[in-house]
Amino acid sequence: MARFLRRGALFLLVLAVLSLGLSTFYERVVMADSFLLRRDRQYRAYKGKLDFLFLGDSHVHRGIDPTVIGRSFNFGCASENYMQSYYKLSRILLEPGPARDCRVVVMPFDLHSFSSYRSARFRHAFYWKRYVDFLDLGRRKGNIPRYLGKLGQGTLVSYWGQGDDFQGYFRSLFSGREGLDELRLGFIVSHDDYALVKNHERRGRERASHQLRGHVNFDRDFVQYFGLCLRLVRNRGKRMVLVRYPVTAEYLDHAEKLVTAEPPPEIQRAIEKTGAVILDYRRAFLGRKDLFSDPNHLNETGARELSAALKIDLEALLEK
């Protein structure tokens, strides 16, 4: 029996070492040129004054070009929700770095921003453990074991379920860095032209349905963390700006039909108490499919047009 236990323990030890080794390879080699880590490196390397800090989901990281706005950085991340934004802000507004002295934090305020379709998403836990206090998150969501499990996954088996990342890495071995999309101060450049594709109506309906159909329109956890974000920014002596990002007419038509619930009063109270400002560009480009890469994301040209308009509004805000 003792011999069996020793062999079992040795097997588990070897398995743990192999798993940690694979996790290290995944994080330091496979993901070395990922958008996540490249953006973090660009942020750490940022020099000069930073007035405007952008956070949020893919509408942000594909829709805001800081080189147009100036004195700004795009810290958006695909599928980032208010929970993730809160913990990211909690760290970067306190630690030495560009964001600590920024004057304005800009976050999305879209039809899908509170949707429960991504309430449990924490892909790339190895990255988010840099920012998220998983124990605090587990307490607030009433499920500590689940979120400590996310922390464990990001620490011990970060490679688990990341087959797409491995495929992308091995493809890059043949294409080299030339295959990497351009990243400008956190902004991911897309040259796709949505006007050239077919079936706009179907594509807009499918995208809106993916984000909103069958989901809670205003997830209670997102509502809570939205308020936490606004209060954190106010308490750090900064302004909060909430942006409604441009979408295509097809997407907007279906999305507005799917959002049937009334916004909880806590949302408006948080906005009023913290003095947050809402800038609405949702309908700004309804007739310009050439400014989009898909039904609800801007391409490079669209991002530059939005950024130019946003620059004027943000500069006017600072003058008040």
Notable features of this structure?
320 residues, alpha/beta, Rossmann fold, five-stranded parallel beta sheet, two-stranded antiparallel ribbon, 14 helices, 9 strands, 9% strand, globular
Low-confidence stretches are: none
Query: What is the CATH first-level class name of one domain?
Result: Alpha Beta
Secondary structural class: alpha/beta
Number of helices: 14
For the largest beta-sheet, the strand count, sense and barrel status come to: 5 strands, parallel
Mean pLDDT: 92
Q: How would you describe this protein?
A:
The chain is α/β, with parallel strands linked by helices and 320 residues long. It has a domain at 37-121 and 184-319: SGNH hydrolase (Rossmann fold), CATH 3.40.50.1110. 52% of the residues lie in helices and 9% in strands. Strands 2-1-3-6-7 form a five-stranded parallel β-sheet. A two-stranded antiparallel ribbon has the order 4-5. Helix 7 (134-141) packs antiparallel against helix 8 (144-156), helix 10 (200-212) packs parallel to helix 12 (249-258) and helix 11 (220-235) packs parallel to helix 13. The N and C termini lie far apart (77 Å). The mean pLDDT is 92.
Break the fold down into its secondary structure elements and pairings.
Blueprint (H helix, E strand, L loop, with lengths): L1 H29 L4 H10 L7 E3 L3 H4 L4 H4 L2 E3 L7 H11 L11 E5 L16 H4 L5 H8 L2 H13 L6 H13 L7 E2 L2 E2 L11 H13 L7 H16 L3 E6 L4 H10 L6 H10 L2 E4 L11 E3 L2 E2 L1 H20 L1
Parallel strand pairs: 1-2, 1-3, 3-6, 6-7
Antiparallel strand pairs: 4-5, 8-9
Helix pairs in contact: 5-11, 7-8, 10-12, 11-13
